[in-house]
């Protein structure tokens, strides 16, 4: 995006904000001017925080959720039911489900969904790591909590077929969530009812 009479560095800042999901041209400009007007120390703190997150955040070696330690706090918690795994598309879905304060089992983050149209196949997701967890034994149920979209349903069905030979119960969330909706936008009560009303695949 080229802005006439705008300093190059400011134009570049606006362009970076415009690349963020859900950010249009006007919002990008507002954010850029906001950052530009920050005290120098705050601006440096903002930039340092982004760099620090990039350097320190990694995938949990068990559930693949984002963490700054080898194993995330959910996987190390002694109060979690390790026999149940809730499979989600991304880490934002973990945050959404944790807001219910009712789910006391574990998660597995796929970091995407199977989508042939976008050239995303099973090998690009964290499916191998999920199957390794199931193969080790001790898993009684896997809850498919992928979003109720074409890709979410296809991924859930693909995984359920992989898991069936292990004699593990595979369930799907009961959705009071609209088809095509995302977990991260659902309220806590809707999510809780979806968890409670899950059905076997």
Spell out the key features of this protein.
about 200 residues; alpha/beta; Helicase, Ruva Protein, domain 3; Dna Topoisomerase Vi A Subunit, Chain: A, domain 2; 2 domains; five-stranded mixed β-sheet; two-stranded antiparallel sheet; 8 helices; about 40% helix; elongated
How are the secondary structure elements laid out?
Layout: H1 8-18, H2 25-36, H3 40-56, E1 58-59, E2 66-67, H4 73-76, E3 81-88, H5 91-98, E4 105-109, H6 127-135, E5 141-144, H7 150-163, E6 169-172, H8 188-196, E7 199-200
Parallel strand pairs: 3-4, 3-5, 5-6
Antiparallel strand pairs: 1-2, 6-7
Helix pairs in contact: 1-2
Account of the protein in words:
There is one protein chain. The chain has 201 residues and is an alpha/beta fold. The chain folds into two domains: 8-56, Helicase, Ruva Protein, domain 3 (Orthogonal Bundle), CATH 1.10.8.420; 59-200, Dna Topoisomerase Vi A Subunit, Chain: A, domain 2 (3-Layer(aba) Sandwich), CATH 3.40.1360. The protein is 42% helix and 13% strand. The chain has helices spanning 8-18, 25-36, 40-56, 73-76, 91-98, 127-135, 150-163, 188-196; strands at residues 58-59, 66-67, 81-88, 105-109, 141-144, 169-172, 199-200. The protein has a five-stranded mixed β-sheet. Strands 1-2 form a two-stranded antiparallel ribbon. Strand 5, helix 7 and strand 6 (169-172) form a beta-alpha-beta unit. It is elongated and about 65 Å long. The model has no long low-confidence stretch (mean pLDDT 90).
């Amino acid at each position: 995006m080229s802005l006439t009479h705008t300093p190059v560095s400011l134009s570049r800042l606006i362009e970076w904000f415009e690349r963020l999901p859900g950010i249009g041209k006007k919002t990008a400009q507002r954010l850029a001017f906001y950052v530009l007007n920050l005290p120098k120390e705050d601006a440096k703190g903002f930039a340092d925080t982004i760099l620090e997150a990039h350097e320190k955040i990694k995938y949990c070696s068990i559930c693949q959720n984002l963490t700054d330690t080898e194993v995330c706090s959910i996987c190390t918690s002694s109060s979690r039911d390790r026999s149940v795994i809730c499979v989600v598309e991304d880490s934002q879905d973990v945050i959404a489900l944790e807001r219910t304060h009712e789910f006391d089992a574990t998660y597995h983050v796929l970091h995407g969904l199977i989508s042939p149209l976008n050239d995303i196949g099973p090998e690009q997701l964290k499916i191998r790591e999920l199957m390794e967890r199931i193969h080790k034994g001790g898993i009684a149920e896997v809850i498919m909590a992928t979003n109720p979209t074409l890709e979410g349903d296809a991924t859930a069905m693909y995984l359920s077929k992989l898991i069936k030979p292990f004699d593990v119960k595979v369930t799907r969330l009961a959705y009071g969530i609209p088809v095509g909706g995302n977990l991260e936008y659902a309220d806590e009560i809707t999510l809780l009812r979806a968890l409670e009303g899950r059905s076997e695949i």
